[in-house]
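W.,

You were right to be curious about this one. When I first looked at the sequence I had no strong expectations either way, so I just let the prediction run and decided to look at it fresh. Below is the sequence, 389 residues in total, followed by the output.
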Amino acid sequence: MDGDAQPDQHGDLRNDLCIVLTYYSPYVSGLTNVARDLAEGLAARGWRVCVVASKHDPELPTHEVVHGVRVVRAPVLAKVGKGTIGLNLTRLALREMARSTVANLHLPLVEAGLLARLSPVPVVSTYHCDVSLPTGDGPLVRRVVNGAQHRAIDLSSGAALRRSVAAVVSSEDYARHSRLWPAIDGRMVAVPPPCPPRGPGRPAFRRGDGLHVGFLGRIVEEKGVEYLVDAFLALDDPDARLLIGGDFLDVAGGSVVERVRRHIGDDPRIAMLGFVPEEDLDDFYASIDVFALPSVNAFEAFGIVQVVAMMAGVPALVSDLPGVRTVVEETGFGVVVAPRDVPGLTTALARLRDDPPDAGAGAGAAAARYSVDAVLDAYDAVFAKAAGR
């Protein structure tokens, strides 16, 4: 496609593809990273790509071009749970969709149902995961709001999926276990998220020669970090270390960092690293022997970080959840344990310490199956077919 954005008869920019989602870079999450890598990857191939998202940080510009991608951000009136409230996202998205050949909605997205209904161009929806918001404890008002938001997002996502020409999912395993499977069925296309490999790093985070276990992700309830902490504490190994990296200061839906700290107590073997910047990620992966993803619910649908770790030669210890387990099952590079199974996690850590799998074979299997180019090729085909229809 023509990489130079061309104005139409009204002087407006034309897009080959319009991507719409709630949070976009520099916000960091698995969903955001997929959209960013897809947008920038296709832009590098010559596509004219526009991303419409909420202006989650008021300091961000409303319009900018980032790595060849035109980004339009809608001001936010308020944040509710993991979502945002704003009057302009739908209007701006429809404007850019009208200038496009095809639209790609990244769900969950509360505006998705209306956007798909009003879209003047074919819609491809990428369904990342079922939304998960705490409704069983906490203040009554928060539980009521979360419950209402939960139902509204499911209703909107289901409506969007039914009006989409294709529903892209990270794996058939996850899709078939999703609450929205009835809306996905019949239009499903399984495409894993793009997983850019890391470069070589220095073991700058290591402290000694013992087993080093790493976690990287937002410190939120669905990640199950406290179960990993409890399992590590039960590991009878004074030389082992647990490195917990991830944001807990600006997290949609709220962080559980204080809960994790209570579980850690005063054990000096465990380090809370906070947000690990991009320039330090290579060193983080080079510093660990096992990557742990102890997620506890279906909000975690794939776990890109486990693939990135595998590509760096680090085996993964992951929860037995639809989609998450798929990577270890397909590569054989790691261990799968039931969610919240602390003794099982401890046993798995000891197993990976005492009998580590072949790092070279595991890295090769992950790279072959989840390369960025293969994912971009698959999306290119889906979008081309949608536009042809």
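Here's what jumped out at me. The chain has two domains: 15-194+371-388, 212-369. And, maybe more interesting for your project: Residues 15-194+371-388 form a domain with the Rossmann fold fold (CATH 3.40.50.2000).

Coffee later to discuss?

I.
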